[in-house]
Design goal:
The complex is a heterotrimer of chains A (202), B (570) and C (381).
Chain A lengths: L25 H30 L12 H25 L2 H31 L8 H32 L5 H29 L3
Helix pairs in contact in A: 1-4, 1-5, 2-3, 2-5, 3-4, 4-5
Chain B lengths: L6 H6 L4 H31 L9 H37 L7 H20 L29 H30 L12 H32 L10 E2 L2 E2 L7 H34 L7 H14 L17 H27 L8 H24 L1 H7 L3 H31 L5 H28 L16 H34 L68
Helix pairs in contact in B: 2-3, 2-4, 2-14, 3-5, 3-6, 3-7, 3-12, 4-5, 5-6, 6-7, 6-8, 7-9, 7-10, 7-12, 8-9, 9-10, 10-12, 10-13, 12-13, 13-14
Chain C lengths: L1 H19 L12 H32 L14 H30 L6 E8 L2 E6 L27 H4 L2 E3 L3 E5 L4 E7 L4 E4 L6 E4 L5 E5 L5 E7 L12 E6 L1 H9 L4 H7 L10 H14 L2 H4 L19 E3 L5 E3 L2 H9 L20 H13 L13
Parallel strand pairs in C: 1-5, 4-10
Antiparallel strand pairs in C: 1-2, 2-3, 5-8, 6-7, 6-9, 9-10, 11-12
Helix pairs in contact in C: 1-2, 2-3, 7-10
Classes of the chains: A mainly alpha (202), B mainly alpha (570), C alpha+beta (381).
The structure holds protoporphyrin IX containing FE and copper (II) ion (2 copies).
Chain lengths: 202, 570, 381
């Protein structure tokens, strides 16, 4: 049976059957998460575009970023590393490491959030208010939105970590949570690095 | 899968894509009826000024805004993606369900919430926003426009919720198409319906963030006093605290969403209508590969044409050259689609069933809408026409009437699969003729009012010298036709109900169609769709009237005969 | 079959409609006749496609509609035909785009010798500014706007002193002289649109937009607003008078300069003004403040109650009571507008923190519009 070239043959199209009701297949979840990253990526990119367009409107005053942001960035990196350790440990079957690494990864995210709030309160007390210069407005808007994504991530993290700590019966499900959480942590780290580069001293 | 289910888990908190699709569709249609009533109120005012007592200019602008927003977002987008996308994708690619059923259910509930918040804006102090569906600042949040406090806030919040819902749904549709196709269902064997919805979904996922970003920034301007979009203004004699912001920036963000949005509505309609034409002309769709590429090409290009909505916005006028060229380039793949539809009819065996009537009517109305788009895309021709009734006629033809005709045809076509019964042909034909001829009568002459120069978004046209009495009379005629068409929609709704109980039994495949949804073991399909074993696909979805077969269609599941090499397009 | 007939009828009727339509562009009154030409070219090319596609469908239906024993062809693609059609389409597109872009490049290219003037929009009225003898418009910005400086001219900019200001919605232009229209807005988006000139452009607060044209036909033309700007959008009217250079010069000479207007407005005490002077102050004030954007002076319906014969009238309020419109009522209605709402109107007027003198002037102006007002002399207190 000769198939014309333009169409992939049967063999190239693997069979996908999955059982209802809940898909546990990691590839599916990962495919969905990648799409989500694309969506969120576009969103943050558009904020960046709006930022750089607004920057040229004449009344822009550079906001000198507090040094604490560097510290917070370090926290976020540490969180990502911890999550990666959790993921690798899980994949290699070193289950005793998974719980602690997850906790540390989440902990760093919480510390990052606290650090961001610290920056906010400092800026506010110095008189940089959200309705002040647009550079400041954008700072609050963008960091706030990024923080909100971390908060949502922490929700899923708590759910997954809870399962691991309780010694989940469904090992595969915990695995999905760990995989997804660590990818999400990396994603938000990358987004943050981009935003930080944009916000830093402009 | 087969454990007993209560009414609540089966029809309300359901995770079955087919139930969710019906929920989405019913909610969207109800919202659409609200928008339809609003349009009749507007037409009353325009055709017979002051005939509706409470229709003052505030109420008019509120009706106009809600009408536009509901039609574009809450009806068409929700119905094509949430309704048809949900129902058709898993069935047409041979999956048991969407890959994330729980997320799918959440998507519907978020959508419902967004509709409720939107409808709530009718009841908040000051009423809904009257800023136009484009919600341009500064007027959207300054005095002088209705609903600049609660109205605009509920609108923006509702949109944000809708975007969350659409994203949850969209992730599902895309992942399902990419990962959950049955054995043998290569991408190039997917029916065009799936292709249209698939590409539209990707576009929605990438375009809605722009609306979200602009909504959030506008909320900040409104509630926290930032100046993202707000320059220094003196509103009604009072200097406000805003300074330095750019209203045009909002327009760029809005249209970066808004133009793709047009195609988010159009591409599913393109896909569906291709399938309707092919099935009812008993002929394969002409130039299938070109059709797929046209869909993809249109999808990509539509992200670089947005500023054709801004030719007179005060942006740098030199942008006009670039956007006029990109916009007219899109006409080429769009024209290909039209050619291939009509060439599919040629040498076909055209069954003039009711869905086919709608499909052919779609080609005709879409051609008008598409061609008038060439006026508006070509920057210099747009300058006299922009913001006139020419634009209103254009976008109603291209994204109002045309997709809605497809929806009518599509519901007619798939109703037997969804309910097991046929819709009533007599009612169907009556509805078709009134709607088709009526909308032509409404919108064809309307273009000329635009060429005359009558601006859109006008509550009244009293005492304008350049507008002759005959134009007012024409307006009355248009309004009368609009009311007839609006009332005729009752027929379709009635048909949906009547046939649900009294319609003729349909059987599994009343139209003799090849695609997978017609090959389910049960009609209507049960939860899980396929019984024990998933289907296996052996050919593309357009094997109609293949020489050497007795029947004039060969289902996708039918294996190629051993002794015969696969047909050219297998 | 009826569908085929319907499609053919649609084509025939559309063509007849196009030929006999009484609704077409207003006669052009500017140099942009070329825009009309591009419209006609586009109309011809698209018209051919419209007719061709509909007729093709009709013929297909007639020839290939289902009959017993009839079977469709199996013909998946036809590369040659598809590419031919793509080629033809491209040709058609180029045929529309090329002349279009050519005319557009004229449109964006303002001639050196063009005069310029400024259109200022606010809800829901127009005002205009001309550069004066020095030919240069003074710098202006919404941040400088005060009741005495409605255009927001920079007070110490020497270029602004001789700028001629038009505080009404009527502007005059000389015939056959290219002119660049500069546009600013005080509040929201508007769009300066005169159908007979073909060109239009949005007014965007915070920036100055522009286009240019040459008026080629003397006469009076209506100015419309073509960008939604709130509840009064449909009623944001103005007038352009195109006339000879001479008549235009005369009109211009009668306009106040910015410097002159500033002198006249240092108003501290109303008692030494005559009623007529007070009325004149009130007229200027209500134009500058935008009152007349919402309150018509001739009884025509507007977002706010008309001022014609308002004074002395029994006004019905939203709560069902009624009240006599007198000095006290009017002053309260200006300073604190939403304390009493007139029946049939929305509570949308912002409070205007006027001084006593300004209130006196405005009330006097409203009085002057009413035949029910008591004989005015002297009772302005
Ligand atoms: C019987 C059907 C319909 C009638 C009679 C109708 C009538 C109208 C009228 C009178 C306006 C206001 C025009 C103006 O004042 O400028 C309007 C605006 C609009 N309509 Fe429709 N319409 C219909 C269906 C639809 C559909 C199906 C759509 C879906 C795309 C739609 C989308 C819009 C949009 C986007 C606007 C612009 C709103 C704005 O200016 O902010 N309409 N329609
Ligand atoms: Cu567009
Ligand atoms: Cu306006």
């Amino acid at each position: 049976m000769s198939e014309p070239k333009a169409y992939p043959s049967l063999e190239e199209n693997p069979v996908r059957d999955f059982s209802l009701p809940t898909p546990t297949d990691l590839t599916l979840a990962r495919g969905g998460l990648r799409m989500l990253f694309a969506v969120l990526g576009v969103m943050f990119a558009l904020f960046a575009v709006a930022y750089s367009m607004r920057m040229h409107m004449g009344d822009w005053q550079v906001l000198v970023d507090p040094w604490q942001l560097w510290l917070n960035t370090a926290m976020l990196i540490a969180g990502s590393v911890a999550m990666e350790i959790a993921r690798q440990s899980w994949r290699r079957g070193r289950t005793q490491w998974v719980g602690p690494a997850l906790l540390i990864g989440g902990g760093f995210a919480v510390v990052f959030l606290a650090g961001q709030l610290w920056v906010w309160s400092m800026l506010t007390s110095e008189g940089y208010l959200v309705n002040g210069n647009p550079a400041t407005s954008f700072f609050y808007l963008i960091t706030g939105l990024h923080g909100l994504h971390i908060v949502v991530g922490l929700g899923f993290w708590a759910y997954g970590t809870g399962k691991v700590l309780r010694g989940a019966e469904s090992a595969q499900r915990a695995g999905v949570s760990i995989e997804l959480c660590s990818s999400y942590w990396h994603f938000l780290l990358v987004v943050w690095l981009g935003l930080f580069a944009l916000l830093a001293n402009t | 899968m087969n454990e007993p289910q209560s009414f609540w888990t089966k029809y309300v908190w359901s995770q079955d894509h087919k139930v969710i699709a019906v929920q989405y569709s019913i909610t969207a249609i109800v919202a659409g009826i609200v928008a339809l009533v609003l349009s009749v109120l507007m037409r009353m005012q325009l055709g017979f000024p002051d005939s509706v007592p409470f229709m003052d200019s505030e109420a008019y602008y509120q009706a106009m805004t809600l009408h536009g927003m509901i039609m574009v977002i809450y009806l068409l987008t929700a119905l094509f993606l949430g309704g048809f996308g949900n129902y058709m994708i898993p069935l047409m690619v041979g999956a048991r369900d969407m890959v994330f059923p729980y997320l799918n259910m959440l998507s519907y509930w978020f959508y419902l919430l967004s509709v409720i918040v939107l409808m709530a804006s009718f009841f908040v102090p000051g009423g809904p926003t009257g800023a136009g569906w484009t919600l341009y600042p500064p007027q959207a949040i300054l005095t002088g426009t209705p609903g600049t406090d609660w109205g605009i806030i509920t609108m923006l919040i509702s949109l944000a919720i809708f975007i969350v819902a659409a994203t949850m749904g969209g992730l599902n549709y895309v992942t399902t198409v990419l990962q959950a196709r049955c054995r043998g269902m290569t991408l190039m064997r997917m029916p065009l319906t799936v292709w249209g919805i698939f590409v539209a979904t990707i576009m929605a996922l990438l375009a809605f963030p722009a609306l979200f970003v602009s909504a959030v920034m506008m909320l900040f301007d409104k509630l926290l006093g930032t100046s993202f979009f707000m320059p220094a203004v003196v509103s009604m004699g009072q200097a406000l605290d805003y300074d330095g912001g750019s209203p045009v920036l909002f327009q760029h963000l809005f249209w970066f969403f808004g133009h793709p949005e047009v195609y988010i509505v159009a591409l599913p309609a393109f896909g569906i209508v291709s399938d309707l034409i092919s099935v009812h002309a008993r002929k394969n769709i002409f130039g299938f590969r070109m059709m797929v590429w046209a869909i993809v090409f249109i999808g990509v290009l539509s992200f670089v044409v947005w500023a054709h909505h801004m030719y007179v916005s005060g942006m740098n006028p030199y942008f006009g050259f670039f956007f006029a060229i990109t916009t007219l380039v899109i006409a080429v793949p769009t024209a290909i689609k039209v050619y291939n539809w009509v060439l599919t009819l040629w040498r076909g065996d055209i069954h003039l069933t009711v869905p086919m009537l709608y499909a052919i009517a779609f080609i005709s109305t879409f051609v008008i809408g598409g061609l008038t788009g060439l006026f508006l895309g070509n920057v210099i021709v747009d300058i006299p026409l922009s913001d006139t009734y020419f634009v209103v006629a254009h976008f109603h033809m291209v994204m109002g009437v045309s997709p809605i005709l497809v929806i009518f045809g599509a519901i007619y076509h798939w109703y037997p699969k969804i309910t097991g019964r046929m819709l009533n042909d007599t009612i169907g034909k009556t509805h078709f003729w009134i709607t088709f001829i009526g909308t032509y009568a409404i919108y064809f002459p309307m273009h000329y009012l635009g060429i005359l120069g009558m601006p859109r978004r006008y509550y009244a046209y009293e005492n304008y010298e350049f507008i002759p009495q005959s134009a007012h009379d024409l307006n009355s005629f248009i309004s009368a036709m609009a009311i007839v068409v609006a009332v005729a929609q009752v027929l379709y709704i009635y048909n949906l109900f009547w046939s649900y109980w009294k319609g003729k039994e349909a059987g599994p495949n009343p139209w003799g169609a090849t695609s997978l949804e017609w090959q389910t073991p049960q009609t209507p399909p049960v939860h899980g769709n396929w019984g024990e074993k998933l289907p296996e696909v052996h050919r593309w979805a357009y094997d109609y009237s293949v020489p050497g077969y007795d029947e004039d269609f060969v289902p996708q599941t039918q294996p190629q005969p051993e002794d015969r090499p696969a047909g050219e397009m297998a | 079959m009826p569908l085929a007939i319907a499609l053919i009828l649609i084509v025939v009727l559309s063509v007849l409609f196009q030929v006999f339509t009484p609704w077409w562009s207003t006669p052009v009154a500017s140099n942009w006749g070329h825009i009309d030409d591009t419209l006609v070219i586009t109309g011809l090319i698209t018209g051919v496609v419209f007719i061709a596609v509909n007729i093709f469908i009709a013929v297909a239906i007639i020839r290939y509609r289902h009959r017993e024993g009839h079977k469709a062809d199996y013909q998946p693609e036809n590369k040659k035909l598809e590419w031919t059609l793509i080629g033809l389409t491209t040709l058609g597109i180029v045929g529309m785009l090329a002349p279009g872009l050519f005319v557009y490049s004229e449109f964006v290219d303002v001639p050196e010798e063009a005069d310029h003037f400024e259109v200022v929009g606010q809800q829901w009225q127009w005002s205009f500014r001309f550069p004066g003898e020095d030919g240069v418009l003074g710098h202006a910005d919404n941040r400088f706007i005060t009741p005495d400086n409605p255009f927001g001219l920079k007070p110490d900019d020497p270029n602004g002193a001789d700028d001629r200001l038009v505080l009404s919605n009527e502007v005059h232009l000389p015939l056959n002289r290219p002119v660049k229209v500069l546009m600013r807005s005080k509040d929201v988006l508007h769009d300066f649109y005169v159908p007979q000139f073909r060109a239009k452009m949005d007014l965007v607060p915070g920036t100055v937009s522009y286009f240019w044209f040459t008026p080629t036909r003397p006469g009076q033309f209506e100015i419309l607003c073509a960008e939604l700007c709130g509840v009064g959008h449909y009623n944001m009217r103005g007038k352009v008078v195109v006339e000879t250079e001479r008549a235009y010069r005369e009109w211009m000479a009668g306009l106040p300069t910015f410097a002159k207007l500033q002198e006249g407005t240092t108003l501290t005490d109303s008692s030494d003004l005559s009623f007529e002077e007070l009325v004149e102050q009130g007229r200027q004030l209500s134009q500058a403040q935008g009152c007349i954007g919402c309150h018509s002076l001739d009884g025509s319906p507007t977002p706010g109650p008309t001022w014609l014969n308002l004074y002395g009238k029994q006004e019905e309020l939203a709560d069902g009571s009624s009240v006599l419109v007198d000095d006290g009522y009017l002053r309260e209605a200006i300073v604190n507008p939403n304390s009493q709402i007139v029946k049939g109107f929305a509570p949308m007027m912002p409070p205007y923190p006027f001084t006593d003198v300004q209130l006196d002037a405005t009330v006097a102006f409203i009085k002057s519009l009413s035949d029910k007002a008591p004989n005015q002399e002297g009772d302005t207190q």
